[in-house]
Design a protein that fits this description.
By secondary structure, this protein is α/β, with parallel strands linked by helices. It folds into 2 domains: about 220 residues, no CATH class; about 45 residues, no CATH class. It is about 25% helix and about 20% strand. Strands 2-1-5-4-3-6-7-9-8-10 form a 10-stranded mixed sheet, sandwiched between helices. α4 crosses α5. It starts with 11 loop residues before the first strand and ends with a strand.
């Protein structure tokens, strides 16, 4: 997941990564490209291109805010067709070819939704950027680091101001607004999952304020279930799965797909349904 501060508007969409991946973008409405090219730019006008009717027997997995796209890479190895997507400031080295779209841009959101509509995926995984919802901002920076010039970030959200605390700086306000826009897009995905009958999984730190943001936006959407708090929740410690820190991550999914695979942690992480 990437800080919202790094997300900037993008006028073009870009495909980048390993060009040898053969199961990326099946049945996609994107224009044909040189299979040997590592980067292909796609203008947003391609949103209106007709859908190709090629039959695609394998299930499709979509990964949003994919970072290095390792999850998509593994899904491809298991026989899934994949569509990994991330923003234009993704600094991770992709392990497979990815589509770059600025999902804070309404045009980019429409391109993404059209791809999902056309591909009819079995599952969509969303690693929603959590920078503005991080509880780490509430912890004081050690004094020795402050003396070395380290900044003391201020919390951008709290229990009384889920959508953003008042009197933010101009830069912090831009970050919060961009993050809220991404959360609204996730609510649209939840609604779409009902229409197309695919599973959706949302990933964020267990104590992130973004869970409260999603719940508040869902309550304002006047849409039927599933609500974020009604989804199946699996919480685990990253260090229990190869990470270096005991950081707790939660997955909220419309099915129990992760329950028996990743639950567990340093002191017994939970897997439950709210």
């Amino acid at each position: 997941m990437h800080p919202v501060a790094e997300i900037q508007p993008s006028k073009k969409l870009k495909l980048s990564g390993n060009p040898s991946e053969s199961k990326v973008f099946p049945n996609s409405t994107l224009p044909s490209a040189d299979p040997t090219a590592s980067t292909v730019f796609v203008d947003s006008s391609d949103l209106n291109r007709p859908v190709e009717s090629t039959f695609c027997p394998q299930p499709t997995f979509v990964e949003l805010f994919c970072g290095c796209a390792r999850l998509s890479h593994v899904a491809s190895q298991q026989g899934f067709n994949i569509l990994p997507i991330d923003g234009p400031r993704n600094e991770h080295k992709p392990e497979t070819k990815i589509m770059t779209i600025d999902l804070t841009d309404p045009a980019g959101q429409e391109v993404c939704l059209k791809q999902i509509n056309d591909l009819k995926p079995q599952m969509v995984h969303v690693a929603l950027p959590c920078g503005t919802g991080s509880r780490a901002r509430e912890k004081p920076i050690p004094s020795h680091l402050l003396k070395q010039g380290a900044p003391q970030p201020r919390p951008l959200r709290d229990e009384c101001h889920i959508m953003g605390v008042p009197n933010l700086s101009k830069l912090d306000q831009i970050k919060v607004q961009a993050s809220n826009e991404l959360a609204r897009f996730v609510i649209r995905l939840l609604q779409l999952s009902l229409d197309l009958s695919f599973d959706i999984c949302i990933e964020n730190p267990a104590n992130s304020w973004m869970w409260a943001v999603l719940t508040q936006l869902w309550c304002c959407s006047r849409t039927t279930q599933p609500q974020p708090n009604d989804m199946h929740i699996t919480t685990f410690s990253n260090c229990n799965h190869g990470g270096l820190r005991p950081k707790k991550t939660s997955l909220r999914c419309t099915s129990r797909v992760f329950r028996r695979h990743v639950s567990g942690g340093v002191r017994g992480a939970s897997s439950q349904t709210l």
